[in-house]
C-alpha cells in the first residue's frame, strides 16, 4: 500500500481497506466529543500542532462524533470536561471504535487527521488542555 499522506509504516490497528472496529485500551485510548464541540476541539488541536495532531477520526452519522486516539493507558490520568467521554479499558468499560483505512471508501468514517510515524497518537495532555478550554469556555 502506498502511503503518500502517512509516512512510515501504517499502524497495525489501521485496516487495509474499509473500516474496522478496534477495542479501545489495547492499541489506543479514545476520547469522544460529539458534534460541533468535537469539531471545534479538533480544529484547535490541528492549528496548535501545525496540522500534525495525530489520529482523529470523524463519524458522518448520528451525533457526528469526533474520536481522538491517544496512547494506550494515557487518558485515564485526566479528568475530562463535560462533553468529552473517555472510552477505554481504564474507564472500566469495554468500548470499540471504528477506524477507517488510510485510503479508499471508508464511509461513514473519515480521518480528520491521520496517524504518522512522527505523531502516531494524539498527545493526551494537549488534548485535555484544549478540550477543557474549548468545552468549558475558559
Your description of this structure?
This protein has 138 residues and is of the alpha+beta class. It has two helices and seven strands. The chain has helices at 35-48, 124-136, and strands spanning 19-23, 29-33, 56-59, 66-70, 84-87, 96-100, 109-113. Helix 1 packs across helix 2. It is globular and about 40 Å long. Mean pLDDT is 90; it is low at 1-6.
Notable traits:
disordered N terminus; globular; 24% strand; 138 residues; 7 strands; 2 helices
Strand content: 15-25%
Decide which structural class fits the backbone: alpha+beta
Over all CA atoms, what is the radius of gyration? 14 Å
Total number of beta strands: 7
Task: Give unreliable regions as ranges.
Answer: 1-6
Q: What is the number of helices?
A: 2
> In order across it, which strands form the biggest sheet?
5-2-4-3-7
Question: What is the overall pLDDT average?
Answer: 90
User: Roughly how many Å apart are the termini?
Assistant: 44 Å
Percent helix range? 10-25%
Order of helices and strands: EEHEEEEEH
Instruction: Describe the sheet with the most strands.
Output: 5 strands, antiparallel
Principal-axes geometry comes out as globular
Q: What is shown here, in short?
A:
This protein is α+β, with helices and mostly antiparallel strands and 138 residues long. The protein has 2 helices and 7 strands. It has a 5-stranded antiparallel β-sheet with strand order 5-2-4-3-7, covered by helices on one side. The chain has a two-stranded antiparallel sheet with strand order 1-6.
